Each structure stands twice: as C-alpha cells, then as structure tokens.
C-alpha cells in the first residue's frame, strides 16, 4: 500500500515535470500535427506526411526563437510570447483538469486547479521561449566588432 502511494506520487511528479518541460513546444507540435494530418489526408503517403509535419514543427519553433531574439520591439515580443504561451495554457489547463478529476475533486475545485495550472504552464512556456531566444543584445557580445563600424564608436 505504501509502495503504491509512493509510486503514484513519483509518477505524478514525472508527468508534471514533462508537462512543464514540453510546454513551450505546444505551438510547434500543433502546427506539425496539423500540417502532417493535412498532407496525410491528401494521400501523399505516411512518410511524406511525417517528414513535412516534422519540418513544419521545427520551422515554427526556430522562426519563433529567431524573431523573438532579433526583434527589439516590446509589443512584438509580447505578441510572440503570447502566441507560444496560449496553446501551452490550454494544454496545462486540460492536463491539470484531467489529473484533478482523477483525484476525485469536486467540479468547482477541479476548475480552480485547472485555471491555476493553465496560468502556471503558460508562464513557464513564456519564460522558456524567452530563455531559448537568449537575452536581448546577445549578438553584440558574440560580435564585438559590430559596434566599431559606427562612427565615433571608440570615443568615450
């Protein structure tokens, strides 16, 4: 009985860890699945559908990171972060709601836990997309000669 409870807690911990670790990949996964299923529906074949879906998902993740890292405009960065956090929020809401329903919580507490879980997972996805992109101006450290091309760059 004690071993069963301990293993249940460990399993739940692993599920929550995986949820938080993969939260930033909710949008690329959604894009990959949508594109892959579309190509599969057009009868191009299973292998082509998998490859095109994989390419679309990787492209979505990489383009989001590059744009988030390169754009200095705060509203655009907020929009990109929200674009990646929204699907993660839905995934977190659904996962926490399912887990709390398994636990036997009432409907109102299930909804409260799910909303809190969705907000936390969205925040985690937001932080992860920002950390994957790196801090603003990281290219200046990698390419110090970029500042020297400006006139009077060394006059201080």
Kindly describe this structure.
With 156 residues, the protein is mainly α. It has one domain (12-134). Helix content is 78%, strand content 0%. The chain has six helices and no strands. The protein has helices at residues 2-21, 26-41, 46-70, 74-102, 107-133, 138-142. The termini are far apart. The model has no long low-confidence stretch (mean pLDDT 82).
Return the structural class: mainly alpha
Overall outline:
globular
The overall pLDDT average reads 82
User: What's the domain count?
Assistant: 1
The total count of strands amounts to 0
Q: Regarding quaternary structure, how should these chains be classified?
A: single chain
Rg computed from alpha carbons, rounded to a whole number of angstroms: 21 Å
User: SSE order in H/E notation?
Assistant: HHHHHH
**Uncertain runs with pLDDT below 50, 5 residues or more?**
none
Please, how many helices?
A: 6
Helix percentage range: over 70%
User: What is the straight-line distance between the termini?
Assistant: 72 Å
Largest sheet: none
């Amino acid at each position: 009985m004690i071993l069963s409870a301990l293993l249940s807690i460990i399993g739940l911990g692993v599920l929550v860890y995986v949820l938080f670790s993969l939260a930033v990949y909710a949008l690329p996964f959604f894009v990959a699945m949508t594109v892959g299923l579309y190509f599969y529906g057009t009868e191009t074949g299973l292998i082509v559908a998998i490859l095109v879906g994989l390419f679309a998902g990787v492209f979505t993740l990489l383009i989001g990171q590059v744009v988030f890292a390169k754009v200095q405009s705060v509203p655009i960065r907020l929009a990109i972060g929200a674009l990646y956090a929204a699907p993660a929020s839905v995934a977190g809401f659904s996962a926490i709601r399912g887990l709390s329903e398994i636990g036997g919580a009432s409907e109102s507490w299930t909804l409260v836990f799910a909303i809190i879980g969705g907000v936390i997972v969205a925040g985690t996805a937001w932080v992860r997309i920002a950390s994957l992109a790196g801090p603003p101006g990281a290219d200046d450290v990698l390419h110090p000669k970029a500042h020297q091309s400006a006139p009077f760059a060394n006059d201080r």
